[in-house]
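Progress against Task 2.4 (sequence-to-structure conversion) is shown through the following example record, which the project officer requested during the mid-term review.
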Amino acid sequence: MSQSATLRRPAPVVLADLIPGAVVRDILLVAGAAGFVGALAQISIHLSFTPVPITGQTLGVLLAGTALGWRRAAAAMALYAVAGIAGVPWFAGHASGWAGASFGYIIGFFLAATLCGALAERRADRSVLRSLPAMLAGEVVIYAAGLTWLALYAHLGPASTISEGLTPFIAGDAIKAVIAAGLLPAAWRLAGRRGGGEPG
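Structure tokens generated for the chain above:
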């Protein structure tokens, strides 16, 4: 075996692996992803008929999960949730704490980012056809946790839970899933052209 083959960097598994470094890189990526989701949470539209706001968080969660891989994504969403519970005002509308109707979606963010990261490590982020189902799976997980929490927190029946926690958000979240599903493969292609990783 040649020396160049021995010293060759391992092929990147997810996009974050294209960034040089190890522990410091991972800490910065985790903190950055948590902050990114927190920033997107401030893009918040409150509707009169539901306690759950429309936000940009879901896009950040899907991107973080697929770009970081499941371990770093899980750590980022855990940091986001725990820091918010502790008082960092980076939930939707500069809120913090866990006692809210939409906190179940934040639990879902952790689960969805972990799932999307695991799927990305199996190359689900390399093409739109593979990336879109991964993003939609993440959305399903977010809604499963969010709707369950909403129903229990607000004492809602199934019909009210769906009308307040699902129906108003389906179109917007579908658009976010499509955007995320397009951005990840595009980033891989760009990285491949620059010689930083393996495309497709």
